[in-house]
Amino acid sequence: MLKIGDKAPILTQKDQNDNDITFPIPEKDNTPGCTSEACSIRDEYEDFIKKDIEIIGISKDSVKSHQKFIDKYSLPYTLISDEDLRVVDAYGVYGKKKMMGREYMGIFRTTYIVDSKGIITHIIDKVDTKNAAAQIKSLI
User: What is the pTM of this model?
Assistant: First the structure.
């Protein structure tokens, strides 16, 4: 996993419009936690824009899934498709997880704040999905 002060990996992926984008915040479409997280950020999005902060979400969901998720919840920010897991692997946020005694591979919900020079300035590895925007705002 990357640390504060590390240079953020720059990998080109596709957003919901099939455009090339290069900045991640891992999440997953249409699950309760990720929907809460996405909507929390949506509700505070104007505050981020005023501070010149770009919010971009990422998950292994498809471009089509991202577009449906954006439309369903009126998300004003970009979502990136990482179906090949290159970005989550580069950030070290994909691995073995455990739920109710069952092990499986999945994305560790993590938020990275990266400055204009591409340096990781903050990492939130215990994301409070209902208060994700407040967590980010407390660090910027």
Answer: 0.83
Residue 2 in domain:
no
Q: Dihedral sign for Cα 118, 11, 24, 72, please.
A: positive
**Range of 48's domain?**
13-137
Catalytic residue among 34, 87, 88, 93: 34
34 part of the active site: yes
| Burial bucket for residue 52 (CB in 10 Å: 0-12, 13-18, 19+) | exposed
Rounded to whole angstroms, how far apart are CA atoms 26 and 38?
11
Tell whether 18 is covered by a domain.
yes
Tens digits of per-residue pLDDT, 21-73?
434 455 567 788 889 999 999 999 999 888 888 888 888 999 999 999 999 99
